[in-house]
């Protein structure tokens, strides 16, 4: 699958929500924990060798689950490949919890859910749709789900 | 650079509802011909498939740090371009099958960025807080605590969608003088401190800071919105002049 790599690398140089040196272990058998500079920018987690400017890779943080493994470690698992875990090791319990929270909040879909919730709450409390004054009430991205049951997963 | 491609492709085809779908002509990566692609916009990602029934996307365009503009094309009508701000970046040329579709895609793509969504969420968070406190309008007297005043917002929500050809979704980058701004109709139109509260005050443009944080750098550190407005307003006015001169 093609992607706009140059632009993604450029994105990795932008101000981050959070950045730190963490231990990182890939999902393949035999992958070992290595020290990486990890940067959270919008809904991407970039990881760099600690002395390099270009990232080794990026993880899109959609359709994933973040879990606490133990005091210092958390993992990211993508829903389409739940057996493959990326594990990260922090320097402290606090740092671990902060990263978990940050990554959960980093997903576009997470923000969308919040928006839908806030919108309906505001409507309930004030009787007005808060998006109307901006002329964006009809935007698809701000709608609550259609109420239909989710589609079955595509055939593999 | 590696990317978790399989999972990204999964996001494209999973059951979460897309923001927009449709056929677009897309200018080839290597060859200059336009190809018809089934396009799926989800969040800040534009996926394109060979066919509507294809199980996997051919590719994805991450829509961060880009502007969307209408463009003239000799080979396609209703053409528009997605242009990135990094040096030697690609310009993605796309074309819709009619004026309505073109406008709809341009709007959708220029509002696709993560920051735009975050901005709207924060605005609603603020409004919800106000609503819960029983304030009568979003721009009530308790202005001291307004989180957006300290420079994190980027877009004047009231301004979006007004201008057709030049819509934009990237931070203004005032600090480094990046002049490519499509802020027509200006951000500060009327209603500010008169407290009629219909439209919340426009959000000051966001700056990119070199360090690792999204926090605003220098701001006058004042709780008085009109002072803050004047301060930002000067820079925006300069930027506007720059932009007008570049037209």
Describe this structure in words.
The complex is a heterodimer of chains A (156) and B (247). Chain A is of the alpha+beta class and 156 residues long. Chain A has helices at residues 5-11, 93-105, 108-126, and strands spanning 2-3, 18-25, 34-41, 44-49, 57-60, 64-68, 73-78, 85-89. A seven-stranded antiparallel beta sheet of chain A has the order 5-4-3-2-8-7-6, with helices on one face. The longest helix of chain A is centred in the C-terminal third of the chain and has 19 residues, at 108-126. Residues 147-152 of chain A have low confidence and may be disordered. Chain B is α+β, with helices and mostly antiparallel strands. Chain B is 25% helix and 19% strand. Chain B has helices at residues 5-13, 99-110, 114-132, 225-246; strands at 2-3, 20-27, 34-42, 45-49, 59-62, 66-70, 79-84, 91-95, 166-168. The two termini of chain B are 37 Å apart. Residues 140-198 and 207-222 of chain B have low confidence and may be disordered. Chains A and B meet through strand 1, helix 1, strand 5 and helix 3 of A and strand 1, helix 1, strand 5 and helix 3 of B.
